[in-house]
Amino acid sequence: MSDPDGARPRSAPAIASPIIAPDRRFLLVLVVLALLTRLIWVLWVHPPGDYVFSDMKKYVERAQDLAVHGWHPERTLAWQAWGTHYLLAIPLRLFGPDALVAGAVTWGLMGAAAVPAGYLLSCRVSTWAWMPKVVGVALLLWWPSLSNGGYFLSEAPFLCFQLWSTLGLVVVLQEGRRPLLAGLASAVAFAVRPQSAMFFVLVLVTWAVNRKRLPRVGWRQLVLVALPLLLMLGYSTWRFHYHTGRWAGVAENANMNLTAGRCHNIVTQAFPTEHAMRRSERDRNTRNGRRVSLPAFRVLAASVPPSHPLALRPAMGGETIRMVGYIGDAEPHRELRAECYRRTGVLEQLRYSVVNASLLWFVGHQWPEQSKNGRWLQPPAEGFKYLFQVVVWFPSLLGLGAGLWWIRRRPGLTFCAWQLMTSITVAAIFFGTIRLRTPYDPYAIILALEGWVLLGIAWARWRARKRPHHTSASASENASASG
């Protein structure tokens, strides 16, 4: 029996259930407002070219180097995943290496494109007809995504391409249409953040579970989706070898990030010689050498006492780990992690994973708003952090569980659940931050609406069970009084 407002039948399986028709007028307004807000933000309110420091500075330098000099072997170019600075290099190549305004427009357009993509995705996976408009308005007003567009970081491009990838894959699943476009969007998302490979594997698992119930998804669709992804993986592997001389990997910062996640050190320092490292140890200098620090771990150490279940408790006993060699060298990091495993044991490593994942939601702050020139951005960033914790966090986990449970009935919603699961799993292995989480917020919002509905149904059923008991008790009391 259908809802009178046009909601899909509750009992209908997702594969056969109708898609909520997009409201074209609402979609047009959403697109116009998304373009206006994002372009105003990146051109006048918060131009990313005015905030080029830390990670942003490295992305800009690599993009400028690529725009001016093209490909050339240099190991530092393999430090981070390459997709972000390649995207930034396109406008810099077209308009000049200092044309950061053109880069800002590119970032603004990607941020704007994510808003209608989230609305259209919700139209295809949500239970009730009112949900997609709530998702569209939420994404339009979602401060963390807007704010991230004002920095040359990976968040804006990953938010855009991963949303269009997910939407495209759901379209392929439901209708078998446009598999090549879905594959191309997925390939760019992988280039920006290789961790998305986990999601694409889970998409394949979802297809395998439902393959007999998906007559529109055949080998042609699978090949056209997979081909751009496999080509991108091949290029990424070749590029890593071109810059490092080794074949295993896509970006070398994964080695350091994994060490930090399994040792819980705040700072990693690398030195060219043993003598330089010993001198740093003797002077207790945590700022020299090739240095990388994790602001989320520093905030955690300052905010949570050592006795707390989510305390940092570094495996090596101090906030810094020092090593000899290049900071991305795999072998020294393997040795460091082995020592951390020996010192902590399995249970403490499991606790580390819980702590790492919790940083997606709690304790930390939105970065880089907490850094240089960001004071005026802190109040709204903190407000949306608490809004997420209160309104989105727990219901989204309920929606995640439902999305996985409904893998045969509603595999499109399962894709959103896999996205959230990927975010949590990667954070548990490495470390989480609110900034790294924000590109996954659209899936959390979609799932949170499902979670709120489930909570409402559970509450209504509980009230219904209590009401007959209360009515019977009142009737008995009245009968006793009459007697």
Characterise this structure:
This protein is an all-alpha fold and 483 residues long. It has two domains: 24-248 and 367-458, no CATH class; 253-327 and 329-358, no CATH class. The protein is 66% helix and 3% strand. The protein is built from 18 helices and three strands. The protein has a three-stranded mixed sheet with strand order 2-1-3. Helix 15 (378-405) packs across helix 16 (411-429).
Question: Can I get a quick summary?
Answer:
With 483 residues, the protein is an all-alpha fold. 66% of the residues lie in helices and 3% in strands.
Structural key phrases:
single chain; 483 residues; 18 helices; 3-stranded mixed beta sheet; mainly alpha; 3 strands; 3% strand
Gyration radius over CA: 25 Å
Number of helical elements:
18
User: What is the makeup of the main sheet?
Assistant: 3 strands, mixed
Query: Which strand order do you get reading across the main beta sheet?
Result: 2-1-3
**Overall form:** globular
- The poorly predicted ranges are 1-14
For the secondary structure, the number of strands is 3
Please indicate the count of domains.
2
Q: In what range is the share of β-strand residues? A: under 5%
Q: What fraction, in percent, of the residue positions are helical?
A: 55-70%
Overall average residue pLDDT: 92
Q: What's the structural blueprint in terms of helices and strands?
A:
Layout: H1 24-45, H2 54-69, H3 83-95, H4 100-125, H5 131-141, H6 143-148, H7 155-175, H8 179-192, H9 197-210, H10 219-244, H11 253-263, E1 267-271, H12 274-283, E2 290-293, H13 295-303, E3 320-324, H14 330-358, H15 378-405, H16 411-429, H17 434-437, H18 441-482
Parallel strand pairs: 1-3
Antiparallel strand pairs: 1-2
Helix pairs in contact: 1-4, 1-5, 2-3, 3-4, 4-5, 4-7, 5-18, 7-8, 7-16, 8-10, 9-16, 11-14, 14-16, 15-16, 15-18, 16-18
